[in-house]
Amino acid sequence: MKNINISWAVFIVGIFFSLNNIFAQSSPPLIVFGLIADTQYADCESGKTRFYRNSLGKLHESIDYFNNQKVQFTVNLGDIIDRDQKDLDSVLICLKHLNKKIFHTTGNHDYKGITDNKVLYKKLKMPSEYYSFMKKNWVFVFLNTNEIAAYSNVVGTAKEQELLRIQNQIKVNKEIQGARWNGGVSSRQLQWLDNLLKKSEKKNRNVLIFCHHPLYPRSQFTALNNMEILDVINRYNCVKAIFSGHHHSGAFGYFDHIPCNTVEGMIETPDKNSFGIVRIYKDRIELEGKERMTSRLFMLQP
């Protein structure tokens, strides 16, 4: 009789844990948002691997999917156009079909034809060149890795001196990300980020970071001063993941405990799209990648 009771106890405990696991898996996500990168629309002929006109159709496809999935907002990781500001009007008309708000960060191509950066931020309805907002207990941080760059109108400003300092450091360290299409962040932006993360950690909030240029793994597409940025981020356990674009083939790696996900660009290939949906649960973050975009799963660390 004693053995039978033990067996029943084990059976009941097993059912409890199974039901608990099923319930956890079926629990709705806390936050759901759409994700796109490197649309690079242009009304021009295709290049070797870039199909500029096709991007508008791909963008429409992603918008339909986001609306059907009832995302709470969408994130654009930059380079929404390729070369001409007139093309931005066509993209903005397309984005009006989104049922929910889109949050932008700029890419290097977005500055083509811009002499006043504020004009670009206003067109994209960005509150500032870098900013954050909070939803539930999550802070969404949008860095501007184009702030210190040869293409973003820094000549004759204090930012030009910061660019020269960073470029010189890259040469001294024999790093590989010194290309003209890469940018970085200013010391002022780093201080803003540090203060924001310190406050978030103190209030026990979780943080996601978005930027155009990858921070890690290092490549020829990495932000100019990626290690300065990562040094700030890595001080805090509240940062749960980093999402970036720019490197169209995509990349992934962990910097210490932080998953760094570079998503595939929409511009590549004539007909295969690239977009995704991010779902945040209590214990994990899921990226559901569509077509070229790779799906990922990040378990949340306490």
From TrEMBL:
GO terms for MF: 2',3'-cyclic-nucleotide 2'-phosphodiesterase activity; ADP-ribose diphosphatase activity; CDP-glycerol diphosphatase activity; manganese ion binding
Calcineurin-like phosphoesterase domain sequence ranges: 33-249
UniProt protein name: Calcineurin-like phosphoesterase domain-containing protein
